[in-house]
Design goal:
By secondary structure, the protein is α/β, with parallel strands linked by helices. The protein is about 35% helix and about 25% strand. The chain has one domain (about 35-65, about 80-225): Rossmann fold, CATH 3.40.50. It has a six-stranded mixed sheet with strand order 6-7-8-3-9-10, with helices on both faces. A hairpin with a 2-residue loop joins strand 4 and strand 5. Bound molecules: adenosine-5'-diphosphate and magnesium ion (MG). One of its GO terms (molecular function) is ATP hydrolysis activity.
């Protein structure tokens, strides 16, 4: 099977063409195999979010190649990138970005709605099934605002899984949560990884969580440091 993700000499600069142009990713090489559960670590400002945005096809690199499931995305037009993103990548952010006036179920349906244009019975069933899976079946019709931070983040995990993505990208998904909620959200992602072989790339500063991953990738100053195994 092709690697889920291959990065080949990815570079990225900000403020291109201005006096403050600065390169923040200096030639990143990385391959992630199907079903891997990988932690991305590194100091604040080292380029982790920039890298995740490029991997998630939300931003384009200045140079280098990015392959997703063996498909080279480098020369794809925006519309094709959007479609590929919608069908292969799920996102979980530090802040959940749920729509507060919508119910849990409606939030989980959003990616399917964006893809298909109108709600249908199958979407409702899929949302219900996913909310059951994240332990929130009873909260299906509750508005997102009425849920705790940990519950909201579990809704965000369900939403990320809505399109059955190959790869879930999570940028500090537990960064805003208390320890117990953080552990619950992390454990949920780990279980989903084992059940469905969904590949995860998770930015975290939490070494306790990172050591439970298959592998830790460390970025320092826009470069990946040599591979190391989770300690302990
Ligand atoms: N939109 C932007 N414009 C200019 N500089 C940016 C922008 N986003 C991030 N940067 C800079 O790029 C570097 C990497 O940032 P980021 O990818 O957010 O790092 P991390 O997620 O590891 O904290 C930092 O120096 C940051 O200030
Ligand atoms: Mg960041």
């Amino acid at each position: 099977m092709a690697d889920v993700l291959v990065l080949d000499q990815i570079r990225k600069s900000y403020n291109v063409g201005t006096p403050v142009e600065v390169e923040v990713l200096h030639g990143i090489d990385l391959a992630i195999r199907p079903g891997e559960f990988v932690a991305l670590m590194g100091p604040s400002g080292s380029g982790k979010s920039t890298l995740l945005n490029i991997i998630g096809l939300l931003d384009r690199p200045a140079s280098g190649r990015l392959l997703i499931n063996g498909e080279d995305t480098t020369d794809l037009p925006d519309a094709a990138l959007t479609k590929l993103r919608g069908h292969t990548i799920g996102f979980v952010f530090q802040y959940h970005y749920l729509i507060s006036a919508f119910t849990a179920a409606e939030n989980v349906m959003m990616p399917m709605l964006v893809d298909r244009g109108h709600p249908d019975r199958q979407m409702e069933e899929r949302a219900a099934e996913l909310l059951d899976r994240v332990g929130l079946g009873k909260w299906r019709d509750n508005r997102a605002t009425n849920m705790s931070g940990g519950q909201q983040q579990r809704v965000a995990v369900a939403r990320a899984l809505a399109m059955d993505p190959t790869l879930v990208l999570a940028d500090e998904p537990t960064g805003n949560l208390d320890t117990a909620s953080a552990n619950a959200v992390f454990e949920l992602m780990r279980q989903i990884n084992r059940e469905r072989s969904t590949t995860f790339l998770i930015v975290t500063h939490n070494m306790d969580l990172a050591r439970q991953c298959d592998r830790i990738v460390e970025v320092v100053d826009g470069r990946i440091t040599p591979a190391r195994q989770p300690p302990g």
